[in-house]
Every structure is written in structure tokens, then in C-alpha cells.
Amino acid sequence: DGEPFDYFELADSSAAMPGHPVVAIGHPDGKDLVVFAGCLSRASGGVELGTRVLSPGEILLSDASIRPQDNGGPLVELDGRLVGLCNSKYFVKPTAEPTKEDLEKPNFGVAVSSAAIAKSLRPAFTSREWKNQTLRSLAKRDAPPSVGERAVAKVRDAIVAVHVGEKLPDLGLLDPYANVRHDGRGSGVCVDSTGLVLTNHHVVKSDDQDVWVTFLNGKTYRAEVLRKDGASNIALLRISSSETFPFVELGDSEQALKGELVLAVGNPRGEALSVGIGVVSAMKRRARVGGNWMPSEGLLQIDAPVDAANTGGAVVDGAGQVVAIINAGETEAEIEEGEEKKDTNIGFAIPIERIRKKFRGEFDMHAGANASVVEARNPTSEELALRESRLTKMVAASAPSLINVYVAVEVPQPETFDPFAEDEARFQMVGQGSGVIIDPSGLALTNWHVVNGGDLVSVRTGTDETYQAKVLSTSRVDDLALLQLEIPQGETVRAVELADSDAVSHGTTVVAIGNPYGHSNTVTAGVLSAVDQAINIKGRAREFEGLIQTDAAINPGNSGGALLDLEGRLVGINSAGANSDAEVGYAIPSNYVREKFHSKLLSAEKLGSSYLGVIVVDDETKGPVVRSVNRFGPAARAGFQVGDVVRKVGASAIKDRVEFVRVTLGAVAGQPIPIELDRDGTTITLEPTPISARAWRVFRQTGVELEVIDYADEPELIRNAQIAMFRNYTGSPDGEPPTIERTAIRVVQVRPSEAEDGLDLKAGDLLMGIETRERLIGGGETTKLIGFHEMGGLGECFDAHATKEEHRWPLYVYRDGEILQTSIRIERVQ
Fold first, then answer.
1. Backbone φ and ψ of 99, nearest 5°
2. What is the number of other CB atoms lying within 10 angstroms of the CB of residue 460?
3. Catalytic: which of 20, 201, 202, 449?
């Protein structure tokens, strides 16, 4: 009908170099986009798609995840030009517990290059004068190379394939990434013009086979092993040739910053570079690699892909210097039958400084032109600018606000007699997660499933301050928990700012910081992939909807941690990964978190605090303002009105709603609390008397407000009521109970709707008990009287007998010297 449509221009894919940033975009439901970001690599082998076999030159590879929802969608450059068309034919949907066979299946996505598309569809593209001129002639790139491309270009000629045996295995058509593991196969890095090559020890661990090195120019050379070190998983080779070889410059790994851009570069077959882009996640971490624990000294942790394709290759910084050698573990499959696979998307590498120390003698003896082998040079101002990016600065600035959460349970003391044993409780750690500080007073958020079932919670910030923490409130249905850090009196902590998650768009850079697998303060970066996603979360009976999806790695231990934007604002609370799929993670949006924090986590019901019956909100100009007053609550009885501005609670000045809740959290039921208000410019002080959280819950269940009275205050009333109840229930006109309980439950008020509905209760009545029916083991039923003497037992009884149905329980009441029988409906409440 002639209606114009938006369209993609076609970029010249042949000009896109390894490391070139790209985004895979899907639009599977026609409503919302799904976005994954990464960089390009060139294929090591061809692949069969449809009825054709495409050569390595006709396809593009990327560490941007290519999934079924992207199938047929564009792989685009950051300027919006199409560089390829996504194809997920060989993508395998992740499973929660993959078997060895599952892991050995081909599993990858590719993109048909724009050059191959243009060649295949040339007759259609040239059949008429299309408005999109790039259909006739692919757009030549006019933008300068990206940081990643420049970095890879500096090292490309020195990244080599290392193999035992001169002939490399045939890839076939199911391994274009060259990710299938083969003994004696890996990558390496030429670090000197004399032909010194660093690689992994496990690649050349066999002593009875020749070692070969192949460069990108296709030349293959025999190499001798100068030294192998299994502890660091590093081997140093020397090419057996007098030629001069291209080499890389080695950087200073000790200066690596969290969040700094790095690329993992390998050359699995000597034909094409395998490149993954990411950031420095953490330094000096102990990790299980290839079935062995690497020592805690000097491991670099990154979130760029680390696998069989680039093991032994280089971790390259933005300046093109090699700061570490990739360690992807042993070449044999790392999973045995029945074991669980934990694909973390977190990789480990051996820092160059550690290698310099370990191989100092060999470097001094054999190195030639490359002075950086022995000592890193001082970086230039331009290189420092690449390292100290907006992202690294944000990560450093946010560290005091982000916490690692450790959860422990109390364990029974041994029953053996020990006169020297201490009476202190013993605790055993049972879980760990992450969290984020949201208020300077020490309020912090994490996931419900992180702290559920724990007896003791402790936290450590990203700047290594440690605190004990108390779980104030939880919401299982929202998978949120509110913590109070026990900070010294008079001190504050740094809190994060919450972003408007509705305003964050697809492709926005986001950073997850947390405690995955115990690797504390780990940084992973990615983009916002999708919104309004639904998944099942541990401990929930139904799907959790409305989640943010990201390709920043979210692993066990990240739960409860922060998903931040580049301003350091909280976009979401990380809640889950997708089973074993570490390329997809989910976070609870900050707007949802904000709403549940104020409406639920700070509520008296969730906090279990004494109830005042007033809701305070923050006004930008006035401060904390009373928004609503429950007409049956203590605040209404004290005279609170909507619009009152809260100035003080006791002696504490109140600056906002959080401060109001925090101060009133310590209010004692039955004890008046002075609250200073500003009402239309006049200062007044009111003294509401809080009621207990349990009493307020009972009011919500029944419409009846109750209080506990003590024998010391009302001895005659309590004694007469209990004697009357005993005689009424036993039928003995002169009987008396063997003991007189010291407390009783008295009615304070009854909601009018309950009285209108037939509940015969009045202020001053004593609740004596309810009668229930119980099934007998042999069949039939019996009645049982549950007496009321204290609020806890009454509350437990009402919780146990609450129902959604219109069911009424026989209720015994003492009024004016007599026992009356009525009935009460107990409603189920959250």
C-alpha cells in the first residue's frame, strides 16, 4: 500500500574485525525486544544451514548470545547497521541438571554475514532501485575501530594455536567455535621475537609427543618445552627456529581494576581468532579449574567467555597489553556421569605478574626484544584513561553500599560433659548471597530465599567493613527481605540511589555486583536484555512476573545483590539465573522493590512492631506527612489527622518516612509515645498508645481489638472470670480451677461491621476461649476448649483456625459476672 517502513542498512561484514561490538536483537512476540550484547569473532569452521554448507567466511560468530528468540533477527553494529542475520539452529535449551551427553551436544548460534546475504540475494537487491542503497552496495565503515578491535588488532598476529601433533583435528560442520575439547589442543601467546610462547600446562603435559605452534599466517613450527609448572598451569615454550616472530606486550596485572574492559583472545586452529569481551570481575580468587583447586594467590577473574577455544590464550586490556593467560581447565570433559554442571560465565586467568615471578630465570635467559617480559612499562595517560573508565569509577564508588550476605544456623551443642566448655551458641554457615544498602541508617535489601531459615546473618561490604544484621521483615511472595545492619551508634553507611526502572531501555549497560559461588564482590557487566519476564523462583509456588532480564552473569550467590546502571543507581535486585544458563539472569525491578519496601516491608505487620495505625509518606517540601489514619487504630484515638507533618518521635528528629518507621520500631505496646506534629503551622504533641503486632493481627482477622490485663491490676475480675468459666464448662456449680492464670484477654473495641454481622462482643468483655472439633484416630470427632490467657497463645490459635469460608467458631465470653456463648469468624490474612 506504499506505506514507508523503517529498515536496517547493511554494513560490510568483511570490514568488521574480531572484537567488533555487536548486538543480537530478537522480537519473538511482536511486542517487546530481547537484546544480547557482545563482540564478533571469525569462524574456525563451516556450518550447515538449511540445504547449504556455509564456509567460515560466510558466517560470523559472537559471544552475544544467539537464541531461538533471535532466530532470523539482526546482528547489528552499535551504529544500527546490520552485519548479519541470526540463526539458532544448533542452540540447545539449557536444563537444570545437564548430563555429560547434554554437554557434549553441539550448542551454538551463528549469524549469516551481510556479505553472504548480499551475494545470495543479489538478483533481488538489484532488480529495482530500492530506497535502501546498501542493498546494491554494502555500507563501508566510516567509524573508527572500537577499543576492543584496536586491542585485538595489537595482539592478533602473536596469538597462536598450540597443539601436540602436527595435524589438527577436523572440525566438521558442528563446531565453528572450535569449542570441542581435544587432548593436546589449545591456544598460546608469543611473548618475544625469539619465539617464546606462553600456554597452559595441561595443553602440553604429555612428555612423549612433539609440540607445534601455528600462527594466523598459517605457518607451523615445532617448539620445545622450556618449563612446565602444574601449580600455576603455565608452560613456557620456545619455537625451534631462528626467525623473528610477532609478539605481544605484557602489562601490569597488579593494576587491573574491577570493571575494566578486557578481551579473552584465543586461536584454536591457527586460522581464526576466538574473541570474547567482558570486564575484570575480581582479583586474587581461589577457583576450581579442571578438577584442581588453584591456590588463592593471584587469579584474575573475568566475565569474558573462557573455554576450550581460547584456553592458553590472552586476556588483553583496552590498551592491547596482555595482563593474564587464560585458564579454561583440563582438556578432558570436566563433568562425570551424574554430576551437576555449573556454567558460571565467570572465567579465571593467571596474571602476568605471577608468571613473571615464576619464570623469571627463563625470561632472563631467553627473552630478546620484548622488555615487558621482565617488567611492565609505565602506562601512558591515554592507557590510564582506557583503564579508569566510567564503569570502573562507578564500581569503586558503589563498593561501600554493596554487601555480601552470610547466613548461619545454630547447631546443637555436643551432649558430652565438658566442665571447660563455653556456653556460647555455635553456628554453621548454610548459605550466602548478596545485598544492597538502601538507607544510611543501615537498612539493606536482599532476597527472601537468601536469608530464609537462617538464625544468624552477617554481612561484609565491598570495602571490607563487617556487621551483624537482623532480618526485620520478609516477603516470600516478592522474594524480598529487609535487613538492619548493626552499625555503631552515631555512624551511618553509604546507600545506593534507586533508579526509575521503567525508564531503563533495552541495550542499556548494567552491572551486577555480588557474591557468586563465594567469590565476593564479583563484577559482571552486560545489557538490559528484556523486561516484563516471568520465571519460577526457588521457594515460590507460582511464576514471578515483571522481571528484568540481563545478559550480565547472574549466578548462585548473586541473589539479592545489585543490578546497577553506569550512574551507580539501583536498576534491580538480582534474583535468579535461568537454571544452568549463565548467559541469562533476572532481577526484580527497582520500581517494584521501592513500592514493596514502603507498602509491605516497612509495614507494622511485616516488621512485627507495635502498631500505631498511621501511614507516613515523604513530601518533597514538607517532609514526612501523615497520609492516612486508621480510624480504629491508636493514632486516631490520639487525634492524628491526615496532613499532619511529623517533626519528632520522643527526642528523635524525623527527616523522612524511613526514619519514622525506624524510630517507632522500638515502641512498646501499652506505653504512650510522644510524637511532635506540625498542623497548619502549629506545633502540637500527641501521645498514641501502640498496640502489639499480635493484637493488631487479631483485629484484622476478627474486627476485635484486644489487650492483656494482669492479675496484679485486676485480681477480682480475673479470678471471678476463670471460676465462672470452670463452672460453666464442667457443669460443677461449686467447682474452682486448680490454678488461676495471672493474665486475661479483654476487648478494647469491636469494629461496627462485626457487631452488625451478629458478633455479640462489647468493650470490657473478657475472651475466655473457643471450642473446636478434632477428629479421633479411630473415627468420629470430639470437642476441645482452647482457653485464652495471653496474646501469643490466642494469636497462634486464631492463625491455626483462620479460614476463607464463612465459618464461625463457638466463643466463650465473660461479661457482668456471667459466661456468655457467641460465635466468631476468623478470617485468613497475609
1. -90, 175
2. 17
3. 449
pLDDT (tens digit, 9 = 90+) per residue, 252-286? 998 999 999 999 999 999 989 999 999 999 875 55
Q: Residue 329 has what pLDDT?
A: 67
Active site residue 732: no
pLDDT confidence of residue 619: 92
Please tell me whether residue 716 adopts helix, strand or coil conformation.
Answer: helix
Nearest Cα to Cα of residue 189 among 247, 228, 238: 247
**750-793 confidence digits (pLDDT tens):** 998 887 788 899 999 999 999 988 777 777 778 889 999 999 89
Cα 237 to its chain centre, rounded Å, is 41
Integer Cα distance of 659 and 446 in angstroms: 20
pLDDT in tens, 93-110: 877 666 777 767 888 999
Q: Would you say 152 and 17 are in contact if contact means Cβ atoms under 8 Å apart?
A: yes
pTM: 0.85
Amino acid (one-letter) located at 398: S
The residues, ordered by sequence, that sit 6+ positions from 510 with a Cβ below 8 Å of its Cβ are 504, 525, 526, 527, 528, 550, 552, 563, 564, 565, 571
Q: Which cell numbers in the block locate residue 218?
A: 598459517
Task: Establish whether 529 is a catalytic residue.
Answer: no
Residues of 764-782 as b/e, b for ≥16 C-beta within 10 angstroms? ebbbbbbebeeeeeeeeee
- The residue from 65, 434, 559, 590 that is catalytic is 559
Q: Tell me, what's the pLDDT at 332?
A: 37
Unique residue bearing C-alpha cell 553500599: 401
Assign 746 to helix, strand or coil: strand
| Residue 26 · residue 14 · CB < 8 Å | no
CB 436 within 8 A of CB 403: yes
Of the residues 175, 478, 479, 765, only one is catalytic, namely: 479
Which residues pair with residue 40 across a beta bridge? 62
Residue pLDDT, tens place only, 607-632: 888 999 999 999 989 999 999 999 99
pLDDT of residue 637 exceeding 60? yes
Confidence bin at 401 (pLDDT 50/70/90) = very high
- Whether 559 is catalytic is yes
